[in-house]
Structures are given as C-alpha cells and as structure tokens.
Amino acid sequence: MLAIATALTFSACDDDDDDDELPPAMEPTLYEKLGGTAMVEDPNNPGELIETGRLGLRSVVDSSIFVIAGDPVLSPYFETLLMELENENTTGFEQLSLSLTNFFSVATGAENFEYNGLNMVVAHDPAQNARMSQPATDEAFDAFIGAVGMGAEQNAVPEELIGEVAALIETLRDPVVQE
Amino acid sequence: MKKTIKNLAFFTLALASVIAISLAIHIYSVMEVKPTGGRTQLGRIDIRENFDVSESDRIKSDLKKVEGVSHAFLNADSKRLIFSFNPRTHTSQKIFRAFSERTRIDAKLYSPSSEVAASGCPMNKDQGVIAQISSLFD
Lengths: 179, 138
Known about the structure:
The complex is a heterodimer. Chain A is mostly helical. In chain A, 50% of the residues lie in helices and 6% in strands. Chain A has helices spanning 2-14, 30-33, 52-69, 92-108, 120-123, 138-154, 159-170, 173-176, and strands at 39-41, 49-51, 84-85, 90-91. In chain A, a hairpin with a 7-residue loop joins strand 1 (39-41) and strand 2 (49-51). Chain B is of the alpha+beta class. Chain B contains five helices and four strands. Chain B has a four-stranded antiparallel sheet with strand order 2-3-1-4, with helices on one face. Mean pLDDT of chain B is 79; it is low at 29-36 and 127-138. At the A-B interface, helix 3, strand 4 and helix 4 of A face strand 1, strand 2 and strand 3 of B.
C-alpha cells in the first residue's frame, strides 16, 4: 500500500516536468475522415452544394437501404421503405435516408446538422413506439451492421473507416436490442 | 331611400363575397400539400425460380434496362430484387410488367400490407414539436 502511495506521489510530481510538452494533436472525427465540411456539388440536387462528409454518409446510407430492403431478417422492420407516404408527400426511402443520414452525420462528428428523430431506446421499444411491432434481435442488429458495411463497400469507403463505422453502430446494440 | 338600401345591400354582399373568397384562398393555401420530395421510391420483386451467379448479373442488368429504373440491387440468397424509380413518372407495376416481358422469369411484385407497413422503421418518426402535438391526435 505504501509502495502504491509512493509511486502515485512521484508520478504526480512527474506531471510538473511535462508542462513544456505540446498537447496531443486532436484526432480527426470520423466525419472529417469521410471528407468533412469541404463543399462539393450534390449529384442528387444539381446546382446545390453539399458537405463531402455528408455526401459520403448519404451515399452509404442509400446503398445500405437497398441491402436492408433485400434482407429477410431486416425488411420486416423497414416495410415503409416500399411505400409512398402520401400524407407527407415523400417516400419511405427518402424519409429513412434523411433520418439515418442525419443520425450518422451527428454521430460521426458533423456540426452543421442535427438529428430530431426518436432516441434509440424509445425508438426500439415496442411499448413506447407503436411503429416498432417487435423487439429488435441480436440477429437483426448484426444484419444491420452487415448491411451498412456492404453499403460502405459499394461506395469504396476504405476498410479501416468501415471498421470505425461498424464500431460506432456496435455502441448502439444495448439501447436497440431490448430483448 | 330605396336606392340607398339597394346599394347598401349590394355593397354588403360584395364585401361578404370578397371575405369568403379570401378565406377560401387562405384555407386552401394552408391545407395544400406542397410537393417537397417524393422523387425516389423503392420497389421489390421476389423471384420464384432458382438461378446461379452468372444469371444473377443478367437479372439485375435486365432490370436496370427497364425504363424508369434508377438503381437495382439483387440479394441472390433471398432472391429479392430491389429497385428505385421516380414515383412521379413511373409505377412499380409498370416496371414489373416491363421486367417480366423482358425476362419471362417467374417473379412477383411485392406489396406490403397496410398492417405490415405500419410497423415500419421507428427512426422515421419525428420527435419535433409538431410531431409530438400530432401524436396526441393519433
């Protein structure tokens, strides 16, 4: 015990010696690694500009949605994808694309966007959200990560960044899978 | 005197008409659904026959050649073809018919029931003030 206390004392004193050292460089956010805020032409909206990071995320999301719609494990959770939402004059695809892109933008460090959807716990709790007909399973969550990974691959996202995206989604497993 | 009453009645009627028309225009402009999107719709074709890897590329390619199809994705394991199109200019039924005529493949256009669709992705539900007020009337 005395040894630990002594070690802590000396290590605390050592901090004074580090005052001259530069602070560690800030690690770029995942959003910055995906292109960040540099503006480029938006291929979906001619004449408009879009942040490169957001364009990358939206492309990944859109490709992932195709994979989700074709996946028997995931598609029951995403049936509105195949519907035109007449009351809102939009489609399930567009609404999900916007919602997921906003979510991933904020989660990866974007500062110019916000996510206004339900939080992950409420969104995936059938008792609190009538649209969630059944609890999400681990199998469905794994399939979702796989779908996003495939969507990222289709958009030539570097493998290490796909790993980071997958790790980010993995942090949501507990609030999403509530069995 | 009679003429004054007649003029007054005419003026009142005209004023009431202007107010009614203004009110009608206001209500219409408030209630009108303004087009904000709806340019990309997904459709799904379930293939009901077996095919190998080489055929899967051809199937996807054949679907992409159908007028109105912007993107296509085939899950060979589940035999599901997913495609996108502009719902303002095309319908999934027309695209499916054109695809079937081109390929003669045994397939079916999938359409979700209203009950199933109601259980769609929970993330779509907005959490804004208006959405929360609207939810009180669900």
